[in-house]
Write a structure and sequence with these properties.
Blueprint lengths: L1 H8 L4 H11 L6 H7 L14 H22 L5 H11 L2 H10 L2 H4 L14 H17 L1 H13 L5 H5 L5 H12 L3 E11 L2 E10 L2 E8 L2 H16 L1 H4 L2
Antiparallel strand pairs: 1-2, 2-3
Helix pairs in contact: 1-2, 3-8, 4-5, 4-8, 4-9, 6-8, 8-9, 11-12
Length: 240
């Protein structure tokens, strides 16, 4: 309690303490761990300094909290429904939007000159790092409350996502099968990115490359390739 009071009133980082309290509802005790949330690998090379380890931890915590939330919200839904809805909630687009809404990217310290490409996932990655920091500082129960109350009930429209079909791969398969053409997803590149495996996949229809997708898993990359393929093929395929 004394440490929290000091952070809020006397600390040189009291603005950070106020910001963390405003977005999470939690008065931070360990400001050092929250400062690390905003230290990008491009500027802070050492693992103990940048936010990548926090991001990994936050990803696991977020997944568990979302699963528990959906389990209680939909007591009569089957496993497949919950898996699909969870993937819509924690996909990069959704998490990037949360990171932007919370103002996380604006506070991120990075060296743009040393980055060959500024990741479009900075918002989502920083949000996951924040979750990791909240967990280490305040524990699981307060982290769960932050995610459920501040994120799932305010920043992400779960009910809207429930009615949205984001299974682009199934959509394009149904369309192409009606046309009698072959369809194949090919891994054309596999590399390390942010110390995680990253996949680039091309979608071929009738032996011709139609689109490309990328992601930190083959499943995500295939969905992105299918989504881009639907854009190429137009509205007819999108309504299949």
């Amino acid at each position: 309690m004394i440490k929290k009071l000091y952070n809020r009133i006397f600390s040189s980082d009291k603005e950070l303490a106020a910001y963390i309290k405003s977005i999470t509802g939690i008065s931070p005790s360990n400001l050092t761990i929250y400062k690390q949330v905003f230290q990008h690998r491009s500027k802070f090379n050492e693992p103990k300094e940048n936010n990548e380890r926090l991001e990994l931890l936050g990803d696991a915590i977020l997944d568990a909290v979302v699963c528990a939330y959906l389990y209680k919200k939909y007591p009569y839904k089957e496993e497949g429904f919950m898996t699909e809805l969870r993937s819509r909630i924690v996909n990069r687009k959704s998490l990037n939007e949360v990171g932007v809404k919370l103002g996380l990217v604006e506070k991120l310290q990075l060296n743009r000159r040393s980055m060959t490409d500024v990741s479009k996932d900075l918002g989502g990655n920083t949000f996951e790092a924040l979750i990791g920091a909240v967990y280490l500082d305040a524990g699981f129960e307060k982290t769960k409350k932050f995610i459920q109350k501040r994120v799932l009930q305010n920043l992400i429209d779960v009910d809207m996502l429930e009615g949205t079909n984001t299974d682009y791969k199934s959509q394009i398969f149904h369309y192409i099968q009606r046309k009698g053409k072959s369809i194949e997803f090919k891994v054309v590149e596999q590399k390390q990115r942010n110390r995680r495996m990253y996949f680039v996949i091309e979608l071929e229809i009738g032996g011709q490359v139609v689109s490309r997708g990328e992601g930190f898993s083959k499943k995500v990359a295939e969905q992105n390739a299918a989504m881009n393929g639907l854009k190429v093929l137009g509205e007819e395929a999108g309504s299949a």
